[in-house]
Amino acid sequence: MVEQLRSWKRKINYKDLLLKLISLALGILVWFLAVGTDQIDVSMNIPIEVLNLPKNLVIYNQYQKEISVTLRGPRGIIQELRNRPPSLSLDLSKATSDTVVLNTETLSFPLPSGISILRMQPASITLSIDKLLERQIPVTAVTEGDVAKGYILKEISLTPDKILVSGPESLVTLEQSLKTYMINLSGLDHSTTLPVHLDLSPEFMELIGETTVVAKLAVADKFVEKKSQENSD
């Protein structure tokens, strides 16, 4: 009798378990039919990742850092892509000093099965690639006006007098010297030291940022200087 009761309980437990498994499977199937196959379109931005650019090269134009794509696929998979969007990798290991135009339609990035690409914008990506050059460029002081009457400007010294610039060869070789903003000498009757910004083109501003040098202006009394020279003779 006891064995019959145990056997009967086991049968009930197995039956309950089987019903639960069937209910779970039906639930998953209903979700898949209701959501998993519900095709939707969505637009998202995919970041562009540049890989393996040789160390002696540099990209110097403001290229597109991401592309806009319109995707179609099951709602559930699309939602996962929204949470963890893929990236578009550009392998530049074989790049040379040149301007490269990439057609985005020929590029690919990993997408789950069942996802299709409807549109990609922009239609192309332009990369301006050049040799990376490092160069010391001298700094030149630019002045206007004259020192006070009876005085002479003995010397203008700049610290630093050279700036190390690193960037694309075509740009770094453009300037023979970097000039300061105008230093006004009008009526100056004494030596002084003052900070002076460099008057940089937008391209050089991007390379080295806003840069300041220290200008030391040595001013002397013309009569005293002349007398000192005569005594030395």
Automatic annotation (TrEMBL):
<protein>
    <submittedName>
        <fullName>YbbR-like protein</fullName>
    </submittedName>
</protein>
<keyword id="KW-0812">Transmembrane</keyword>
<dbReference type="Pfam" id="PF07949">
    <property type="entry name" value="YbbR"/>
</dbReference>
<keyword id="KW-1133">Transmembrane helix</keyword>
<keyword id="KW-0472">Membrane</keyword>
<feature type="transmembrane region" description="Helical">
    <location>
        <begin position="17"/>
        <end position="36"/>
    </location>
</feature>
<dbReference type="InterPro" id="IPR053154">
    <property type="entry name" value="c-di-AMP_regulator"/>
</dbReference>
<dbReference type="InterPro" id="IPR012505">
    <property type="entry name" value="YbbR"/>
</dbReference>
